[in-house]
Amino acid sequence: MHQDVSGGRRSRRYILFAAAALLGWAVLWWTTKLWGEHLLMRYPMNLPAPPLAGFWHRRLNQAVFPTAAAGLLIAFGLPVIAERARWWIALAAGVFTTIGFASILTLNDGWRGFQGGVDDPSGFLAALPKVHSVGQFLHDFIRLIREVRVGIHVQGHPPGMVIVAWAFNQLGQHGGRRFAMLVIVAGALGGGGVLIVVRRLVDETTARRALPFVAVAPACVWIASTADAFFAGVAAWTIVCLAYAITTTGRRSIVLSVGCGLAYFCCLMLSYGLALFAIPIVVMCVWRRRWVPCVTVFATAGVGLLLVRTQGFWWVDGLRTTKMIYFQGVARHRPQSYFLFANIAALGIALGPMIPVAYSQLRDRRVWILIGSVVVAVIAADVSGMSRAEVERIWLPFTTFLLAGGSALWLGPRPRRAAQLALVVQVGFTVWLQTNMQLFW
């Protein structure tokens, strides 16, 4: 009888925490929506649907029905696969599910939706005529962005993504659709990387439980429409290398640390914001008390930056120039006091309504360390002032890790059924968002 009373109290407490988390998620979104609409009367923020970068536009067509059907099939089937299949089969299923679901969502807008984010005149592919060789582009890059001879997306990033696009083009893979597929696959592999990290640093059961929520989330809307999904993939596999480096010893640990350093160097060349992955790297090394891998990672990345400097591009100068251009542009019309909150609301939308609920139930200290290090990086990005809107896509590398908290949604006497119902909510919200929000590219 005593156990029944105790169990009942615990259940009521969990329900109360879950309701509070869901209410907080909704209130933050609604508050920042109303606040943002008020600010639009005073500032040209170029944000018609605050806190999201886009505008509300209902697009119900024949693609909605197969999308919803596929979503329901995933919601009920993927948890079963995650629980019962062999680990690598389950992982592959998660990756292919992300690719398929993101693609189906995007096809709601036809092929334009598929490639709009990468074929945009201000995007990375549009800068390819400026690249004659890697060395020449690195040498000219800062001058090109100062003279505004490249698009806004190129101005806001280091030269790495344009070089990736150029190399892809050199391999004979021309056109926005093929490049879009590269981005989607990289984003999906990023989710797989997160799950490998969870399995390595926490345990396999937690990774299996996180799998459906990492694979399917509102973030899929942006995985299929922005190059930031590619950044998410590179960042995730940087942490995969780190996870193995700090859990092995000897020569293998050193090799993996160097690999992590090279991957982190790639992160730095792709996006200035990915520099904040230094925080999870340091936290995980401190957690496991592995100092040599930590030093090796940053030393390797530093050597890479110095080598690039010999070709004419200095990362610090690039960041300084980008910051100057950013604050002379739209950022000066976007009040930081508002976006401190609006950014978090946009991140919450990309995570979906059930992930805050998961955090209210999460009790595993190891998962909190992993996710907490990423949360600190998000807070640093938020207070820096360099992230004012559009974080639903810009923060995809962080979002992918934060989705791992969904492992806590396997609750109660029938945990798989609880996970399936939570995934139905996530899928339903994702489909609703895709069919009601027209994204900015």
Summarize the structure.
The chain is mostly helical. It has helices spanning 2-39, 64-84, 87-106, 110-119, 134-146, 152-155, 160-170, 176-201, 204-215, 220-223, 228-245, 250-270, 278-288, 291-309, 315-328, 336-351, 354-361, 365-384, 391-394, 396-402, 415-436; strands spanning 54-56, 437-439.
Molecular structure report:
The chain contains 21 helices and 2 strands. It is 72% helix and 1% strand. The chain is mostly helical and 441 residues long.
Topology overview:
Elements: H1 2-39, E1 54-56, H2 64-84, H3 87-106, H4 110-119, H5 134-146, H6 152-155, H7 160-170, H8 176-201, H9 204-215, H10 220-223, H11 228-245, H12 250-270, H13 278-288, H14 291-309, H15 315-328, H16 336-351, H17 354-361, H18 365-384, H19 391-394, H20 396-402, H21 415-436, E2 437-439
Helix pairs in contact: 1-16, 1-17, 2-3, 2-9, 2-21, 3-8, 3-9, 4-8, 5-15, 8-9, 8-11, 11-12, 11-20, 12-14, 13-14, 13-18
User: What's the overall geometry?
Assistant: globular
Query: What's the total count of β strands?
Result: 2
Unreliable stretches (pLDDT < 50, length at least 5) are none
* Mean pLDDT metric: 92
DSSP helix count? Answer: 21
Q: What class would the helix/strand composition place it in? A: mainly alpha
**Separation of the first and last Cα atoms:** 59 Å
How does the major sheet shape up? Answer: 2 strands, antiparallel
How large a portion of the residues is in β-strands, by DSSP E? under 5%
> Which strand order does the major sheet show?
1-2
The share of residues in helices is over 70%
Radius of gyration: 21 Å
SSE arrangement, N to C: HEHHHHHHHHHHHHHHHHHHHHE
